[in-house]
Amino acid sequence: MLKPMSVVRQAIVADASDEMDGAMAEGAAAGQAKDRVKAGRRVLPIVEGVVLVAALLAPLVLQDYLTVFATRVIILALFALSFDLVWGYAGIMSFGQALFFGSAGYGVALLARDLDITNILLVLPAGTIIGLTFALLLGGFLLLGRHPSSVIFVSLGTLTGSYAADRLARGWYYLGGQNGIPSIAPMTLGGYEFTEGPSFYYLVLGILVVVYLLCRFLVRSQFGLALAGLRENEQRIAFFGYKAQHLKAIIFTIGGGVAGLAGSLYAFHEGFVWPNMVGVVVSTQVVLYVLFGGSGTLIGAVIGAVIVEGVSFWLSDNYRDIWPIILGLLLLLVILFRPLGLISFVLGERERVGSFGAAAREKRNAAP
Amino acid sequence: MPLLEAAGIKKIFGKLTALDGAALTVGENEFHGLIGPNGSGKSTLMKCIAGAEVPTQGKVSFVNTDITAFTPTERARAGMSLKFQITSVLPSLTLYDNILLALQAQSSLFDLVFSRTRGALHDQVMTMLRQFRLADRAFDAAAALSHGQQQWLEIAMALAGKPKLLLLDEPTGGMSLEERRVTGELLQPIKQHCSLVIVEHDLDFIRDICDRLTVLDQGRVLASGTVSEIQANPSVQEIYLRRA
After folding, report:
1. How far is CA B211 from CA B27, B196, B197, in A?
2. Region B204-232: what's the mean pLDDT?
3. Distance between CA A368 and CA A80 in Å, rounded?
4. Could you give the CA distance from residue B217 to residue B38 in angstroms, rounded to a whole number?
């Protein structure tokens, strides 16, 4: 991945300078460009590789109860990706991401409880569609006005949605009220039951990797370039002729779908769903994962979820009474001094934003 | 039939009347300068034409269509383009990506997701960059450019969608004399396919490049005509002398 990309970039840079007016600038410009190419797109694949290897090996070294914990963390990392797409890539401040996570959780719990549907090939798509649908409805309402909606309108709107869903779930007897829906039957595939442990872990990890790669494909495409424009200057790209509100609604809906997938996995893994899952607390939690790890990079969201959950777990074991305070301070420190998150310790700005037009592969291949 | 016709444009901000019945008519392949003292309403008129502001009263027609109520996106899709007064290139993206972003604005969603127009637009991106003398910096972040170069990049982006009309708000603001001269050169070739409305303080620059001028004063049109007509107009001379 790394090598062909930089080769193409060098070729294009060379192409640019070949046809430049002054022949004298040619060598110097190409040389500089090569240095820049060398400096760029290096760290990210390494970080991604390290995280993947660590994730693959984790169940082999962890005790059983920790594998269960790690599974939960991977599901939350998937959830963090959904928020990162929406906030980190499109600049839409969603304070209600748990609405899609939790509503999908409730949805699959009801499928299992009332209709005995636990087949993984049915429940996971169903959860994703529930997340998509809720996000489409809420996003359509909040984002699809004739004129762009303000950040505060969207963040309060999503927050209110999440809060209202929490209250609704608490008060609705059919959804189990305060207690939620307990004892959800395990997910099945044919005769096989996915219960807590390594098999569930690797299932979730596989799903995370697939979703991650799809997200990566999306954010590095020309669509990703449009998202970058949206994030940096929404008004400007509207003047180019982009339908900015449509772009936002689309990415918001996709984010809802990913959150829904994560929520349905969470419901089956934990074996129960409860009102908090759609509420404001979980909505805020996912914001923290992404801010902590580094918004606008997919791997930052994953790392953020792993570290925040890992540190909470360790702190709550060792500092039973004061751990939320320590965690809060840590988060504050990162947000104050590293607004781009932990990933910014190793990742430069240029690589974080990336380039979109560099791979004119078809053209290169077609040329003699 | 003119390309752009704005008539009776009134814009009131609270108690301030920024435009009071201003008008502007631009023909095809015409470079039209919009001048006037500070606070005469030049930028506001530009914004009303581009859709950044909605006029309180009046009508804007573009290619025989009433676009007064169009959003900026709809105006852009009709063939109108705007370069903002404050440079708004996307600083963290490369120059190449800035231009590509402008060029791909009307690609379909499917094409964007599967990056289907990226290869086809490559030559156009490089041509634009070469035309504006920025090709050797194609893969630098736009933030690294000098102010003048950022203005050129911005003009290139505004031209990328092959507009019928380009609105330039103070393109030479903050430029050196040499950069101004080059800007004039860079703009000349676009006349073959595009009209221009240009707001500018540098009257020499305006005189060199424009075919016709409209002079605004206190939100009204003081005079409109060819460059020599305007230069000979006593009331125009008076407002410039009065404030000088």
Report:
1. 10, 10, 10
2. 88
3. 45
4. 9
Run of H or E including B34: strand B31-35
Edge to edge, the sheet with strand B31-35 lists B80-83, B165-169, B195-199, B31-35, B212-217, B220-226
Beta carbons within 10 angstroms of residue A121's beta carbon: 11
Is B33 within 8 Å of B212 (Cβ atoms)? yes
When mean pLDDT is compared across A6-20, B113-127, B130-144, B203-217, the lowest value belongs to A6-20
Q: Do B88 and A25 touch (CB under 8 A)?
A: no
Residues of chain B with C-beta less than 8 angstroms from the C-beta of A363: 119, 122-123
A137: three-class secondary structure by DSSP:
helix
**Cβ separation A222–B107 shorter than 8 A:** yes
Task: Give A363 to chain B, closest Cα distance, Å.
Answer: 6
Q: Are A258 and A78 in contact (CB under 8 A)?
A: yes
Residues of B in contact with A146 (CB under 8 A): 71
Average of per-residue pLDDT across B42-47: 89
**Which range is most confident: A125-139, B99-113, B119-133?**
A125-139
**Mutual angle of helices A280-293 and A64-83, in 10-degree steps:** 90
The two structure tokens encoding residue A35: 């240095």
Instruction: Express each pLDDT in A290-306 by its tens digit.
Output: 998 988 899 999 999 99
Q: Does A111 touch chain B (CB under 8 A)?
A: no
List chain B residues with CB under 8 Å of A229: 90, 93, 101
pLDDT of residue A7 exceeding 90: no
**CA atoms of A350 and A1, how far apart (whole Å):** 18
Residue indicated by tokens 């499109």: A90
Helices (H), B104-146: 109-113, 118-131
Q: Which of B205, B101, B91 lies closest to B158, judged by CA?
A: B101
The residues pairing with B218 across neighbouring beta strands, listed in sequence order, are none
Q: Residue B112 to residues A242, A247, B78: CA-CA distances in angstroms?
A: 12, 11, 21
Greater pLDDT, B34 or A26: B34
Query: Does residue B132 contact residue B152 with C-beta atoms inside 8 Å?
Result: yes
Report the DSSP beta bridge partners of residue B194. none
Tell me: the pLDDT tens digits for A142-191? 888 777 888 889 999 999 999 999 999 999 999 988 988 988 889 989 88
CA distance linking residue A323 with residue A325, whole number of Å: 5
| Segment A210-240, tens digit of pLDDT | 999 999 999 999 999 999 999 988 888 888 8
Q: Which residue has the tokens 């269509």?
A: B65
Whether A125 and chain B come into contact, CB under 8 Å, resolves to no
**Residue A360 clears pLDDT 80, i.e. is over it:** no
Which pLDDT belongs to residue A41?
Answer: 52
